[in-house]
User: Fold Aminotransferase class V-fold PLP-dependent enzyme from Saccharibacillus alkalitolerans.
Amino acid sequence: MLYLDNSATTKIHPEVLEAMMPYLQEEYGNPSSKFYSLAENAKKAVAKAREQVASLLGCDPDEVVFTSGATESNNMIIKGIADYYGREDGANKRLMTTKVEHPSVIETFNFLGERGYEVSFLDVDQYARVTVEQIKEAAAQTQPLLTSIMWGNNEIGSLNPIAELSALFEENGLFFHTDATQVIGKVPVDLKNLKGVRFLSMSGHKIGGPKGIGAAIIRKQSKEIYTRLTPLMHGGGQENNYRSGTLAVHNIVGLGKAAELAAANLEQNVQRLTELEQYLTDIFKTNLSGKIKFNSDEKDKIPGLISLQFIGVNNELLLKKLADYVALSSGSACSSSKPSHVLSAAGRSLEEVRQTIRISLEREVSEKDLFIFKKIQ
Ligand code: PLP
Assistant:
Protein backbone atom coordinates (compact mmCIF):
# COMPACT_ATOMS: atom_id res chain seq x y z
CA MET A 1 0.00 0.00 0.00
CA LEU A 2 1.19 3.48 -0.86
CA TYR A 3 1.46 5.71 2.22
CA LEU A 4 0.73 9.36 1.45
CA ASP A 5 -0.27 10.63 4.87
CA ASN A 6 3.13 11.90 5.94
CA SER A 7 1.72 15.03 7.55
CA ALA A 8 -0.05 12.73 10.03
CA THR A 9 3.10 10.78 10.79
CA THR A 10 6.18 9.38 9.07
CA LYS A 11 7.94 6.06 8.97
CA ILE A 12 10.94 5.95 11.27
CA HIS A 13 14.19 6.48 9.35
CA PRO A 14 16.44 3.37 9.47
CA GLU A 15 19.40 5.43 10.73
CA VAL A 16 17.21 6.82 13.50
CA LEU A 17 16.18 3.34 14.59
CA GLU A 18 19.78 2.18 14.49
CA ALA A 19 20.89 5.12 16.66
CA MET A 20 18.14 4.41 19.18
CA MET A 21 18.60 0.65 19.60
CA PRO A 22 21.57 0.69 22.02
CA TYR A 23 19.58 2.95 24.37
CA LEU A 24 16.75 0.40 24.50
CA GLN A 25 19.16 -2.42 25.21
CA GLU A 26 22.59 -2.19 26.77
CA GLU A 27 22.76 1.59 27.40
CA TYR A 28 19.81 1.87 29.75
CA GLY A 29 21.26 4.28 32.32
CA ASN A 30 19.38 7.21 33.78
CA PRO A 31 21.08 10.44 32.66
CA SER A 32 20.29 12.07 36.00
CA SER A 33 22.36 9.47 37.89
CA LYS A 34 26.04 10.07 38.52
CA PHE A 35 29.53 8.61 38.39
CA TYR A 36 29.05 5.20 36.74
CA SER A 37 29.42 4.80 33.00
CA LEU A 38 25.84 3.78 32.15
CA ALA A 39 24.61 7.11 33.51
CA GLU A 40 27.45 9.09 31.93
CA ASN A 41 26.83 7.47 28.53
CA ALA A 42 23.13 8.31 28.71
CA LYS A 43 23.99 11.89 29.70
CA LYS A 44 26.38 12.21 26.75
CA ALA A 45 23.78 10.81 24.35
CA VAL A 46 21.20 13.35 25.54
CA ALA A 47 23.74 16.18 25.22
CA LYS A 48 24.55 15.13 21.66
CA ALA A 49 20.86 15.01 20.71
CA ARG A 50 20.37 18.46 22.23
CA GLU A 51 23.19 19.76 20.04
CA GLN A 52 21.69 18.10 16.97
CA VAL A 53 18.28 19.72 17.55
CA ALA A 54 19.87 23.09 18.34
CA SER A 55 21.98 22.90 15.21
CA LEU A 56 18.93 22.12 13.05
CA LEU A 57 17.06 25.13 14.43
CA GLY A 58 19.90 27.61 14.93
CA CYS A 59 19.48 28.03 18.68
CA ASP A 60 21.63 27.26 21.73
CA PRO A 61 21.51 23.69 23.10
CA ASP A 62 20.30 24.98 26.48
CA GLU A 63 17.26 26.47 24.73
CA VAL A 64 16.06 22.97 23.76
CA VAL A 65 13.60 21.33 26.17
CA PHE A 66 12.64 17.73 25.39
CA THR A 67 8.92 17.01 25.65
CA SER A 68 6.61 14.18 24.59
CA GLY A 69 5.75 15.95 21.32
CA ALA A 70 4.40 19.14 19.86
CA THR A 71 1.10 18.87 21.75
CA GLU A 72 3.00 19.04 25.01
CA SER A 73 5.33 21.78 23.73
CA ASN A 74 2.35 23.93 22.74
CA ASN A 75 0.64 23.34 26.10
CA MET A 76 3.84 23.93 28.05
CA ILE A 77 4.67 27.22 26.37
CA ILE A 78 1.20 28.74 26.25
CA LYS A 79 -0.01 27.68 29.71
CA GLY A 80 3.45 28.20 31.18
CA ILE A 81 3.78 31.80 30.01
CA ALA A 82 0.14 32.60 30.76
CA ASP A 83 0.49 31.34 34.32
CA TYR A 84 3.93 32.71 35.09
CA TYR A 85 3.25 36.25 33.90
CA GLY A 86 -0.52 36.37 34.14
CA ARG A 87 -1.02 35.34 37.77
CA GLU A 88 -0.05 38.71 39.20
CA ASP A 89 -2.88 41.14 39.88
CA GLY A 90 -3.22 43.62 37.08
CA ALA A 91 -0.90 41.67 34.81
CA ASN A 92 -1.69 41.43 31.15
CA LYS A 93 -3.85 38.34 30.60
CA ARG A 94 -4.44 38.77 26.90
CA LEU A 95 -3.42 35.98 24.54
CA MET A 96 -3.73 35.99 20.77
CA THR A 97 -3.78 33.22 18.17
CA THR A 98 -5.52 32.32 14.91
CA LYS A 99 -8.62 30.28 14.04
CA VAL A 100 -6.61 27.67 12.14
CA GLU A 101 -4.08 26.44 14.68
CA HIS A 102 -3.66 22.80 15.62
CA PRO A 103 -6.14 21.69 18.33
CA SER A 104 -3.29 21.57 20.85
CA VAL A 105 -3.11 25.37 20.56
CA ILE A 106 -6.84 26.10 20.09
CA GLU A 107 -7.92 23.94 23.03
CA THR A 108 -5.17 25.33 25.26
CA PHE A 109 -6.45 28.82 24.48
CA ASN A 110 -10.02 27.69 25.21
CA PHE A 111 -8.85 26.21 28.52
CA LEU A 112 -7.22 29.50 29.48
CA GLY A 113 -10.25 31.45 28.24
CA GLU A 114 -12.39 29.54 30.74
CA ARG A 115 -9.95 30.52 33.49
CA GLY A 116 -10.14 34.25 33.12
CA TYR A 117 -7.69 34.96 30.30
CA GLU A 118 -8.81 37.14 27.43
CA VAL A 119 -8.16 35.02 24.37
CA SER A 120 -8.60 36.09 20.78
CA PHE A 121 -8.71 33.96 17.66
CA LEU A 122 -7.81 35.94 14.55
CA ASP A 123 -9.39 35.48 11.13
CA VAL A 124 -7.34 34.15 8.23
CA ASP A 125 -7.41 34.56 4.45
CA GLN A 126 -8.70 32.00 1.92
CA TYR A 127 -5.46 30.03 2.31
CA ALA A 128 -5.58 30.03 6.13
CA ARG A 129 -2.84 32.64 6.45
CA VAL A 130 -2.47 35.84 8.43
CA THR A 131 -0.83 39.02 7.19
CA VAL A 132 1.84 41.02 8.95
CA GLU A 133 -0.29 44.18 8.80
CA GLN A 134 -3.19 42.39 10.47
CA ILE A 135 -0.99 41.08 13.29
CA LYS A 136 0.74 44.44 13.70
CA GLU A 137 -2.59 46.17 14.13
CA ALA A 138 -4.03 43.52 16.48
CA ALA A 139 -0.88 43.46 18.63
CA ALA A 140 -0.78 47.26 18.85
CA GLN A 141 -4.42 47.32 19.92
CA THR A 142 -4.36 44.57 22.57
CA GLN A 143 -0.66 44.30 23.54
CA PRO A 144 -1.02 40.55 24.11
CA LEU A 145 1.23 38.81 26.60
CA LEU A 146 1.73 35.99 24.08
CA THR A 147 0.87 35.51 20.41
CA SER A 148 0.90 32.02 18.91
CA ILE A 149 0.88 31.64 15.12
CA MET A 150 1.71 28.42 13.33
CA TRP A 151 4.51 28.41 10.77
CA GLY A 152 2.87 26.01 8.33
CA ASN A 153 -0.68 24.72 8.37
CA ASN A 154 -1.12 20.96 8.75
CA GLU A 155 -4.26 20.75 6.61
CA ILE A 156 -3.72 23.20 3.75
CA GLY A 157 0.06 23.52 3.91
CA SER A 158 0.10 27.33 3.73
CA LEU A 159 3.06 29.13 5.28
CA ASN A 160 2.74 32.22 7.43
CA PRO A 161 5.23 35.10 7.03
CA ILE A 162 7.27 34.08 10.07
CA ALA A 163 10.40 36.13 9.27
CA GLU A 164 8.35 39.33 9.04
CA LEU A 165 6.34 38.42 12.13
CA SER A 166 9.58 37.75 13.98
CA ALA A 167 10.82 41.23 13.05
CA LEU A 168 7.53 42.71 14.25
CA PHE A 169 7.70 40.96 17.63
CA GLU A 170 11.37 41.76 18.03
CA GLU A 171 10.47 45.39 17.63
CA ASN A 172 7.42 45.46 19.90
CA GLY A 173 9.03 43.17 22.50
CA LEU A 174 5.93 40.97 22.99
CA PHE A 175 6.23 37.20 23.37
CA PHE A 176 5.80 35.28 20.11
CA HIS A 177 5.44 31.51 19.72
CA THR A 178 5.29 29.49 16.52
CA ASP A 179 4.24 25.89 16.08
CA ALA A 180 6.76 24.68 13.50
CA THR A 181 5.73 21.01 13.61
CA GLN A 182 4.85 20.74 9.92
CA VAL A 183 7.73 22.73 8.45
CA ILE A 184 10.80 21.09 9.97
CA GLY A 185 12.88 19.50 7.21
CA LYS A 186 10.77 21.23 4.55
CA VAL A 187 11.49 24.89 5.15
CA PRO A 188 14.76 26.46 6.40
CA VAL A 189 14.39 27.33 10.08
CA ASP A 190 17.18 29.43 11.51
CA LEU A 191 16.38 31.01 14.84
CA LYS A 192 19.66 32.96 14.79
CA ASN A 193 17.97 35.25 12.29
CA LEU A 194 14.56 35.14 13.98
CA LYS A 195 15.12 36.89 17.27
CA GLY A 196 11.45 37.75 17.67
CA VAL A 197 10.50 34.05 17.75
CA ARG A 198 10.81 33.46 21.49
CA PHE A 199 9.21 30.00 21.53
CA LEU A 200 8.92 27.20 18.99
CA SER A 201 7.33 23.74 19.03
CA MET A 202 8.36 20.69 17.05
CA SER A 203 7.73 16.95 16.98
CA GLY A 204 9.87 13.88 16.23
CA HIS A 205 7.40 11.67 14.41
CA LYS A 206 6.79 14.15 11.60
CA ILE A 207 10.44 14.02 10.53
CA GLY A 208 11.32 10.33 10.55
CA GLY A 209 11.82 10.22 14.31
CA PRO A 210 9.96 8.18 16.91
CA LYS A 211 6.54 9.03 18.35
CA GLY A 212 6.27 10.44 21.86
CA ILE A 213 9.14 12.88 21.61
CA GLY A 214 9.44 16.52 20.61
CA ALA A 215 10.97 19.75 21.71
CA ALA A 216 9.93 23.11 23.05
CA ILE A 217 12.42 25.81 22.20
CA ILE A 218 12.48 28.42 24.94
CA ARG A 219 14.86 31.18 23.97
CA LYS A 220 16.94 32.90 26.62
CA GLN A 221 16.42 36.56 27.35
CA SER A 222 20.16 37.06 27.12
CA LYS A 223 23.19 34.79 27.15
CA GLU A 224 22.80 34.14 30.89
CA ILE A 225 19.15 34.84 31.64
CA TYR A 226 16.64 32.06 31.02
CA THR A 227 13.02 32.82 30.20
CA ARG A 228 10.88 31.60 33.06
CA LEU A 229 7.55 29.87 32.74
CA THR A 230 5.43 27.68 34.99
CA PRO A 231 6.15 24.03 34.18
CA LEU A 232 3.42 21.53 33.33
CA MET A 233 5.35 18.77 35.10
CA HIS A 234 6.66 19.34 38.60
CA GLY A 235 9.15 16.96 40.11
CA GLY A 236 12.87 16.27 39.96
CA GLY A 237 13.72 19.42 38.03
CA GLN A 238 15.05 17.82 34.84
CA GLU A 239 15.35 19.96 31.72
CA ASN A 240 16.40 23.04 33.61
CA ASN A 241 13.22 22.79 35.73
CA TYR A 242 11.06 23.27 32.66
CA ARG A 243 10.01 19.61 32.47
CA SER A 244 10.47 17.09 35.23
CA GLY A 245 10.55 13.35 34.64
CA THR A 246 13.21 10.80 33.72
CA LEU A 247 14.38 11.54 30.21
CA ALA A 248 13.32 9.09 27.48
CA VAL A 249 16.90 8.65 26.31
CA HIS A 250 16.15 6.33 23.36
CA ASN A 251 13.51 8.72 22.01
CA ILE A 252 15.73 11.74 22.57
CA VAL A 253 18.57 10.04 20.69
CA GLY A 254 16.09 9.27 17.90
CA LEU A 255 14.91 12.88 17.76
CA GLY A 256 18.52 14.06 17.62
CA LYS A 257 19.35 11.78 14.71
CA ALA A 258 16.15 12.73 12.87
CA ALA A 259 17.08 16.40 13.37
CA GLU A 260 20.57 15.80 12.00
CA LEU A 261 19.13 14.08 8.92
CA ALA A 262 16.49 16.77 8.43
CA ALA A 263 19.21 19.42 8.40
CA ALA A 264 21.53 17.47 6.10
CA ASN A 265 18.77 16.57 3.62
CA LEU A 266 16.77 19.79 3.61
CA GLU A 267 17.66 20.96 0.10
CA GLN A 268 17.26 17.57 -1.58
CA ASN A 269 14.06 16.98 0.33
CA VAL A 270 12.52 20.26 -0.79
CA GLN A 271 13.59 19.69 -4.38
CA ARG A 272 12.18 16.17 -4.55
CA LEU A 273 8.93 17.03 -2.78
CA THR A 274 8.43 20.00 -5.11
CA GLU A 275 9.01 17.78 -8.17
CA LEU A 276 6.61 15.12 -6.94
CA GLU A 277 3.99 17.68 -6.04
CA GLN A 278 4.24 19.23 -9.49
CA TYR A 279 3.98 15.82 -11.13
CA LEU A 280 0.88 14.88 -9.16
CA THR A 281 -0.70 18.29 -9.60
CA ASP A 282 -0.25 17.97 -13.36
CA ILE A 283 -1.97 14.57 -13.32
CA PHE A 284 -4.95 16.09 -11.53
CA LYS A 285 -5.06 19.14 -13.78
CA THR A 286 -4.90 17.04 -16.94
CA ASN A 287 -7.18 14.16 -15.99
CA LEU A 288 -9.68 15.82 -13.71
CA SER A 289 -9.98 19.30 -15.12
CA GLY A 290 -13.20 20.91 -13.87
CA LYS A 291 -13.71 18.13 -11.30
CA ILE A 292 -11.23 19.31 -8.69
CA LYS A 293 -10.28 22.49 -6.85
CA PHE A 294 -7.04 23.09 -4.94
CA ASN A 295 -7.30 24.55 -1.46
CA SER A 296 -3.78 25.91 -1.19
CA ASP A 297 -2.00 28.72 -2.92
CA GLU A 298 0.72 27.67 -5.37
CA LYS A 299 3.35 29.67 -3.55
CA ASP A 300 4.24 30.01 0.13
CA LYS A 301 3.30 26.47 0.95
CA ILE A 302 4.84 23.36 2.48
CA PRO A 303 6.29 21.30 -0.40
CA GLY A 304 4.60 17.94 -0.88
CA LEU A 305 1.34 18.74 0.90
CA ILE A 306 -1.67 18.95 -1.41
CA SER A 307 -5.17 19.73 -0.20
CA LEU A 308 -7.84 19.43 -2.86
CA GLN A 309 -11.58 19.10 -3.32
CA PHE A 310 -13.17 16.49 -5.53
CA ILE A 311 -16.27 18.37 -6.60
CA GLY A 312 -19.45 16.48 -5.75
CA VAL A 313 -17.60 13.53 -4.19
CA ASN A 314 -17.83 12.71 -0.48
CA ASN A 315 -14.27 12.55 0.86
CA GLU A 316 -14.94 9.74 3.33
CA LEU A 317 -16.37 7.52 0.59
CA LEU A 318 -13.42 8.32 -1.66
CA LEU A 319 -10.88 7.62 1.10
CA LYS A 320 -12.57 4.33 1.95
CA LYS A 321 -12.60 3.31 -1.70
CA LEU A 322 -8.91 4.05 -2.02
CA ALA A 323 -7.89 2.68 1.39
CA ASP A 324 -6.69 -0.70 0.08
CA TYR A 325 -4.27 1.01 -2.29
CA VAL A 326 -3.31 4.34 -0.84
CA ALA A 327 -3.37 5.91 2.64
CA LEU A 328 -4.64 9.48 2.56
CA SER A 329 -6.64 11.65 4.91
CA SER A 330 -9.39 14.22 4.82
CA GLY A 331 -7.20 16.69 6.71
CA SER A 332 -5.82 16.53 10.20
CA ALA A 333 -5.50 13.10 11.81
CA CYS A 334 -6.27 14.59 15.23
CA SER A 335 -9.75 15.83 14.36
CA SER A 336 -10.75 13.54 11.52
CA SER A 337 -14.22 12.96 12.98
CA LYS A 338 -15.16 16.67 12.88
CA PRO A 339 -15.42 18.93 9.81
CA SER A 340 -12.21 20.90 9.46
CA HIS A 341 -12.08 24.14 11.47
CA VAL A 342 -9.19 25.21 9.20
CA LEU A 343 -11.08 24.98 5.92
CA SER A 344 -14.17 26.55 7.51
CA ALA A 345 -12.13 29.50 8.80
CA ALA A 346 -10.57 29.81 5.33
CA GLY A 347 -14.06 30.32 3.94
CA ARG A 348 -14.89 26.88 2.52
CA SER A 349 -18.50 25.72 2.81
CA LEU A 350 -19.35 22.54 4.71
CA GLU A 351 -19.93 20.87 1.36
CA GLU A 352 -16.44 21.86 0.19
CA VAL A 353 -14.92 20.64 3.46
CA ARG A 354 -16.61 17.26 2.94
CA GLN A 355 -15.09 16.99 -0.53
CA THR A 356 -11.53 17.69 0.56
CA ILE A 357 -8.67 15.25 0.86
CA ARG A 358 -5.07 15.80 1.91
CA ILE A 359 -2.15 14.12 0.19
CA SER A 360 1.19 14.44 1.96
CA LEU A 361 4.15 13.07 0.04
CA GLU A 362 7.60 11.90 1.07
CA ARG A 363 10.78 11.85 -0.97
CA GLU A 364 11.01 8.08 -1.40
CA VAL A 365 7.78 7.99 -3.42
CA SER A 366 8.31 7.48 -7.16
CA GLU A 367 6.43 8.96 -10.10
CA LYS A 368 5.32 5.44 -10.96
CA ASP A 369 3.70 5.08 -7.52
CA LEU A 370 1.59 8.11 -8.34
CA PHE A 371 0.11 6.52 -11.48
CA ILE A 372 -2.68 5.28 -9.25
CA PHE A 373 -4.13 8.80 -9.33
CA LYS A 374 -4.48 8.57 -13.11
CA LYS A 375 -7.18 5.97 -12.52
CA ILE A 376 -9.45 8.35 -10.67
CA GLN A 377 -12.13 9.51 -13.12
N1 PLP B 1 1.01 20.96 15.71
C1 PLP B 1 0.82 20.66 14.43
C2 PLP B 1 0.79 21.76 13.40
C3 PLP B 1 0.64 19.33 14.03
O1 PLP B 1 0.45 19.04 12.74
C4 PLP B 1 0.66 18.32 15.03
C5 PLP B 1 0.43 16.91 14.68
O2 PLP B 1 -0.45 16.56 13.94
C6 PLP B 1 0.87 18.70 16.37
C7 PLP B 1 1.04 20.02 16.67
C8 PLP B 1 0.91 17.68 17.47
O3 PLP B 1 2.10 16.96 17.44
P1 PLP B 1 2.33 15.68 18.35
O4 PLP B 1 1.70 14.55 17.63
O5 PLP B 1 3.83 15.57 18.41
O6 PLP B 1 1.75 15.95 19.67
User: Anything to note?
Assistant: The chain has two domains: 2-8+266-370, 14-264. The two ends are 20 Å apart (CA to CA). The longest strand covers residues 305-310.
